[in-house]
Structure to design on (139 residues):
């Protein structure tokens, strides 16, 4: 089995609605996503000979996903008052509303599923919220 790993980062803000502690406050992270894909066999065409996938392609797909979350306020749907949300949107802030609480665990699963849809044979996605805290999702 071959395992390929790449990573990308983005900077965004979030808060944990309903959480009893400092993370219920709006705060930012440099989120790091580590993607691992796997393959039993390598390709044989001249361009990809000896590769599962070109790191350049893999890195770009992960980079695009990271960029889609960059410099945003990531919120769980219905966790802000409608008036607050409208006020933030009226300032043209970039808001990303998710169906789940934006914890490292949920974000890892979310990224895993997004990348899987691109056709990769997935192993795991790890999300670092801080340099020492990470969560990994795998099936
Ligand atoms: N299992 C999880 N626990 C927590 C998550 C999470 O995603 N999964 N998230 C948070 C907060 O978002 C917080 O940003 C990270 O927590 P914490 O390490 O407590 O924060 P700091 O980096 O500021 O650590 P200090 O050592 O207090 O400076 C909370 N828990
Ligand atoms: Zn946090």
């Amino acid at each position: 089995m071959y395992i390929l790993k790449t990573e990308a980062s983005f900077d965004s803000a979030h808060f944990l609605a309903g959480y009893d502690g400092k993370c219920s406050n709006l705060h930012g992270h440099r989120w790091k996503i580590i993607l691992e894909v796997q393959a039993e066999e390598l390709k044989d065409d001249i361009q990809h000979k000896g590769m599962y996938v070109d790191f350049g392609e893999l890195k770009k797909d992960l980079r695009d996903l990271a960029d889609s979350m960059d410099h945003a306020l990531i919120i769980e749907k219905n966790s802000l008052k409608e008036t607050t949300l409208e006020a933030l949107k009226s300032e043209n802030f970039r808001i990303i509303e998710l169906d789940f609480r934006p914890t490292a665990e949920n974000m890892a699963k979310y990224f895993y599923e997004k990348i899987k849809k691109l056709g990769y044979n997935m192993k795991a996605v790890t999300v670092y919220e801080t340099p020492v805290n990470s969560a990994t999702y795998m099936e």
Strands lie at 2-14, 27-39, 73-76, 95-98, 122-130, 133-137. Residues 2-137 form a domain with the Tetrahydropterin Synthase; Chain A fold (CATH 3.30.479.10). Residues 16, 23, 27, 103-105, 129-130, 133 surround LPXRUNBV (ligand 1) (CB under 6 Å). Helices lie at 55-68, 82-90, 104-116.
